[in-house]
């Protein structure tokens, strides 16, 4: 589909997007910046409420995005190739939605025109980070497992005002 009146995320495959389009697909939720655990036997992924040390818990953005891979070595780089394979990407993630041929939700900044709607819809991690990884003492990550990063909050499914 080449109709320019159709938003780029509906007419382009991930691999066809410009760098700016690609970056704008991130809704700024911060969910992917939570530590995760994988069951070695089943491959099942569990999210925790422990955030990467570079995450800003209020803006839910990386505090050093350009240098993140030099500072946090296990920060995964998303690409058009690996997005469809990354099972831990939240159901709400803009990259995952587009890779699955789905539309973005009303609260995505590309749709709403407002970077705050991802927080208003309860999708971002704002106010929900329990710990930052550099503040962990002898705690076990398994004790920090939470299910909300895998869920879509009810108000995020409704249109605003309904
Ligand atoms: S989960 Fe997806 S949309 Fe949310 S911050 Fe991570 S890359 Fe961006
Ligand atoms: S380095 Fe930045 S982008 Fe990567 S996981 Fe940490 S906060 Fe998220």
TrEMBL record:
Record-linked InterPro entries: Puta_zinc/iron-chelating_dom (IPR005358), UCP006173 (IPR008228)
Family stated for the protein in its record: Belongs to the UPF0260 family.
NCBIfam families: PRK05170.1-5, PRK05170.2-5
Name of the protein in its database record: UPF0260 protein PQJ73_17920
Organism of this sequence: Rhodoplanes tepidamans (Rhodoplanes cryptolactis)
């Amino acid at each position: 589909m080449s109709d320019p009146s159709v938003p780029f995320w509906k007419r382009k495959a991930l691999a066809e997007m410009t760098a700016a389009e690609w970056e704008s697909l991130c809704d700024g939720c911060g969910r992917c910046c939570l530590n995760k655990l994988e069951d070695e036997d089943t491959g099942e992924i569990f999210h925790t409420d422990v955030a990467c040390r570079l995450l800003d818990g209020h803006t839910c953005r990386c505090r050093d995005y350009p240098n993140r891979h030099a500072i946090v070595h296990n920060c995964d780089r998303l690409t058009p190739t690996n997005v469809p394979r990354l099972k831990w990407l939240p159901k709400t993630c803009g990259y995952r939605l587009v890779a699955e041929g789905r539309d973005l939700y009303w609260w995505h900044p590309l749709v709403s025109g407002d970077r705050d709607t991802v927080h208003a819809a309860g999708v971002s991690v704002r106010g929900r980070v329990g710990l930052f990884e550099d503040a962990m003492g002898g705690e076990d990550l398994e004790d920090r497992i939470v299910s909300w990063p895998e869920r879509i909050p009810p108000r995020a499914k409704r249109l605003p005002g309904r």
